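Next comes a concrete protein, fold included:
___
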Amino acid sequence: MSGRVQKAALRGRGRPTRGRLARRRRPAVALLEVVCALALFFGVAVVVLGGLSTCVRTVCQVREEAQAADLAVTLLSELQMGLLPVASAGPTAFEDPDADWTWEVAALPVDTPVEGVELARVEIIIRNILDGYTYRLYHWLPEEGEGTGAAPPAPPEEGAGP
């Protein structure tokens, strides 16, 4: 090599070699890789957070449905035990801690093919006044004055032993 070409190569003025070209492109490729990695990370984070949001919303909805079903079954039990009359009533607010819930009973007489048996189709409506959620439970019960259909046990006779 001539002295002039050698000096140009040493100073970096000559034609760049393959290694020098690759070294110049590395910072740009590294930056592109970092940007792609960040975009991928944030995309995955958005999907995961969206899924968590859906899960939390579903859990709240299931909790509300379960509480409404509990309140409806409790009210139905009170109707069956005779603590409340089998007649249309409400809407009435529950006591604390369920003060944001109301209940309503709609009883409709039903024609039965059996003589002497009078049934009522009872609809229990439970509402959450804060969320506007409504739960309905339907059941057949003997009408007021009919009792539960089971005769009370007869008192034991005097002098009768086991």
